[in-house]
Design brief:
Length: about 110
């Protein structure tokens, strides 16, 4: 699907990634960042069920959330909470001293 391939390229441009499932795609933020739209490390986009799909509508909603961008997590308690939730003690370590506090999602 060209639309999902485009989304994947845009996510990779900001260091994020895409996980594809049957009727879902998860837009995973790069380590150390959360999506502004929901304050979480991923934004799930659900685009189908029971053999029916509505990819265009789902991506429109997904892009409205992705376009809010990513923000660096600087609160140590929040970092520990995310690490615990992801079961990943290294989450956010590589950007600890990175001065980039906000990443704008590419609007291409």
């Amino acid at each position: 699907m060209k639309a999902i391939e485009k989304l994947q390229r845009q996510l990779e441009e900001v260091g994020a990634s895409l996980d594809e499932y049957d009727f879902f795609v998860n837009c995973d933020a790069p380590s150390g960042y959360v999506w502004v739209a929901n304050g979480e490390t991923n934004i799930p986009i659900h685009f189908g069920a029971h053999g029916q799909t509505w990819l265009t509508v789902a991506l429109k909603d997904g892009y409205s959330r992705l376009n809010m961008g990513l923000e660096k997590v600087e609160d140590d308690a929040r970092i520990e909470e995310i690490r615990f939730g992801l079961d990943n003690d290294d989450w956010g370590k590589e950007i600890k001293h990175n001065s980039i506090k906000f990443i704008q999602f590419p609007k291409k």
